Amino acid sequence: MANIHNFIDRSKIQELAFFGILSFLLSFPSCKEKESSVQVIPDQSGYLHYGTWNELRPTMSFRTAWGEILQSEDLFFFVLSDTTHTTYEVVDTLFSSDQGKMRCTFNVSNLMYATAGSLTYDRKLGKAEFSIDINNSFHLEGKLIPDTILRHPILDFTQITMRDNNGMIQSTEDEGDWKIRNKWNPVETQLFQLKYNSTNHGGNFLIAYPNPMENSLNLKFISQQNKPLDFLLVNPNMEVERTFLNLNNTNMQLQIDNPAFNGGYYRLYYHYHPDSSYSIYGSGDIKFSE
Length: 290
Prior knowledge:
The protein is built from three helices and 18 strands. By secondary structure, it is mainly β.
């Protein structure tokens, strides 16, 4: 009998030990529980900043023959060099010849720009994910899912001020053309790395003719001071086609001869910087003859 009792006691002890070990093991979190604590980017437009997910609505795509611009609210503006690549790398200046490149503006209390990073874009699924450094100071990552795809540029370049070969006005003057501008869209501020979307205000700056043009454009300045200025010719995807740097604001003629421009609308931006403490900016739309 003693042997039977000893056997039963040992069996109970083993059973208690087994359930004790099982309870101990179950008290630890599983691998799945560990994985659930990792920050997961939701399947919606938004960005992650210091561990907090910020939703973005709406997100729009502006697709043209030149490329694509993604805008999320008035906060993010991604200018993509083309619509064929799936990966885009940040560059300082986006030229029309670039492929797989991009610029990004982060529009908060002041304008900031991506200085490094990339964006991957699956157009079949309609999803883009980005990971970028802003002003070399902090990191952002997120996702863009366009709610609306528009087949036209983000800005309208077609409202030109028409002038003949003698500079005589031939149409209603576009109120924003060839003046000193003080309000800017964030996709434009990338061109000059502006810190704010408002700049020094002023009146007329120059007269540009003929418009439409063939291969040369005459520029007649309202005030000639022989001070430095730069010109950038930009296509509707906000890519730089031509640069004319370190010129002087004296009457001049720009030679712009490219058969690819024929029949198209472009915008000529200018930055007048007579000294290090003062700058003015402006632009004018031009059309190239067929």
